[in-house]
Amino acid sequence: MRRIVKHISLCSQGLIASVILAVACTTGPVQPVLAQSDEANAVSDQDKGVHYSLYYEDFKNRNYLSALPNLQWILRNAPDYPRNDDRNFERTVELYTALATDSPSEEGKQAHLDSAYVWFDRSIANMREGDIEFDEAQWLLRKGRFLQEHSQSLSSEAPTFASVYNEVYTMIGCNIDAYYVRIIIDDAARNGDKQRAVNLTDEAETCYPDNTDVAAYLTEIRNALFSTPEERLEFLQTRLENTPDNIEVAAELFDIYLELGYRDEAAELGDRLLEMDPSPLTYRRLGQLHLQDGNATRALSYYEQALELLGDDADVTVRRDILYNLGIARQQDGAVSQARSFFRQAIQVDANFGQAYIAIGDLYAAAVSNCGTFEREDRAVYWLAVDYYQQARARDSSVSAQANQKIATYRRSFPDQEALFFQNWEPGQPYRVDYGCYSWINETTTVRAP
Q: I need a surface site. Which of 97, 108, 114, 339 has the fewest CB within 10 A?
């Protein structure tokens, strides 16, 4: 017992000198931990326990400088004490990082961070050599997070934190958290390695199939990688070859074909897409293809099937767009009254859908041209067309420019002052359009001054 007390006393007496020494050590190169030699193995459990207790007491009380000499002794002589795990190495990194945080000078902060960084690799090497139990992937993740936070303050050459995360990804694959994969993909994209970024997005899609945040990110990064339709075309074609049953890829490729005017390719893929996914959205896509081709009959068939398959809880935008395009198809077919009916239904679904108001105004303006006489009563129909353009402008700012242009165009064709005089029309009075070839219109407008 006297020997133990005497030993502790000697340790305490030398503590101040040891602390002074520790400050010098932390600002210079850190000495490597040696593999446990026969001499180290000969260190008694009593000595190990004393040094461990002394450093840990100081460490948990944040007396890091006081803890350092005894911690260094443990690292040299008993790094696996007390349970053959990585706790002493982990505390070493934590200690130097804390000293950096507490340092009053930038020079001291940098020196402590350099020491902490060195200990990441040194710890892994020593734990391997000493057959100490540790999780290498977790150590590398800690190293990556350390670099992510402190890389700007390190004086030594250090790898990027993304490269460290990539090392972990190579090691454990899909077991890594998706957060780190996003960093790896961003790094590949930022460095111009587009193919690797693409490969990683495909792998991430497989690794995290039910993660909605990852799915949204993958869509975003792919859009950034392939910003033009031409780039996306090649990318999507390759993806569909690799994943022929991928409905989302097939649907997006179909849309790109339409955008770029590849009609034959779109038609062929459309038939295939319908087999894969006979949904309202697929029927709507095929309706759009045939509507653009001027095949109103086939377009109507597909849009009607899309409308029939829509559930009561369908998205408002989808329903109103289908109704609107049914109206366009009917208009192409010459059934103007039915076209107007579909446009009105689209407005019932979304009262702020400006394009439907414009479509009705266009029907009325076109009716004037189709009737062909261009008399005073014909010109009066433009009042009603302009009513709808004004409603479109008031309801939907996105069509304001289009509506204003049409208002300016048709206002020039309003009945002139002479027409108002001979027809006994007074500005502001109601006027009903329900005569001749306009009988199908059957709506009331207001007499306007020229």
A: 108
Give SS3 for 351. coil
Rounded-to-integer distance, Cα 265 and Cα 147, Å: 49
End-to-end CA distance of the chain: 116
Q: What is the pTM of this model?
A: 0.65
Q: List the domain boundaries for the chain.
A: 1-132, 351-450
CA distance 302 to 290: 9
Residue type, 355: Q
Question: Can you read off the two tokens belonging to residue 131?
Answer: 């057959």
Kind and range of the H or E run holding 158: none
Taking Cα atoms as reference points, which of 31, 108, 19 lies closest to residue 68? 19
Judge contact between 429 and 447, C-beta under 8 A.
yes
Alpha helices in 310-446 (DSSP H): 316-332, 336-349, 354-371, 376-395, 400-411, 417-423
Instruction: Please tell me whether residue 445 adopts helix, strand or coil conformation.
Output: strand
The token duo for 193 is: 């390695």
> Cα separation of 318 and 338, whole Å?
20
- Whether omega before 82 lies within 30 degrees of 0, making that bond cis, reads yes
Per-residue pLDDT tens over the stretch 106-141: 999 999 999 999 999 999 999 999 999 999 999 999
- Segment holding 444, helix H or strand E: strand 443-446
Residue 340 has, within 13 A of its CA and on its CB side, a CA count of: 16
Structure tokens that stand for 178 in this block? 């998706």
Q: What is the largest CA-CA distance in the chain?
A: 129
Reading phi first (left if > 0) and then psi (alpha if -120 to 50, else beta), residue 96 is in alpha
Separation between Cα atoms, residue 368 and residue 374, nearest integer Å: 7
